[in-house]
Write a structure and sequence with these properties.
about 130 residues
Length: about 130
């Protein structure tokens, strides 16, 4: 059976483009979409942890300049997302420290979960 690894990045790119154009995360039900993406990404990440170990990502980021670049890109993107989401999360009454801890150990999984919760709270009060 052929590996899906070359196909999955293309599928993710298509999903990204479609949801960005259709405002999937920005719609009134964006919290639900974000929660579903979070659940799917968490499930795939659990598979990766089982298949490659909990630190299987590290060799990818330390092998060459591209690996370093991807690591830097991820950290910068998460920092920007955190900074942009922070005022909204505060306004929604979220306790920020547990979310920051989750983001630090899970990256975008925690960020997606925080985003989904924040959007849910905003929609509930609107």
């Amino acid at each position: 059976m052929a590996s899906l690894y070359p196909i999955l990045p293309i599928a993710a790119l298509v999903l990204f483009v479609v949801t960005t154009i259709r405002e999937g995360l920005g719609s009134s039900q964006g919290w639900l979409f974000a929660a579903m993406v979070c659940a799917g990404f968490a499930a795939f990440s659990a598979y990766a942890i089982v298949a490659e170990g909990p630190f299987g990502f590290w060799p990818n980021h330390t092998q060459n300049a591209w690996g370093n670049q991807v690591w830097f890109d991820l950290l910068i993107a998460i920092a920007i997302a955190w900074a942009l989401l922070l005022p909204r999360a505060r306004a929604a009454g979220m306790n920020l420290w547990p979310w920051l801890a989750l983001i630090c150990v899970s990256g975008c999984i925690g960020l997606l979960a925080m985003f989904a919760r924040c959007r849910y709270l905003e929609n509930r009060t609107a």
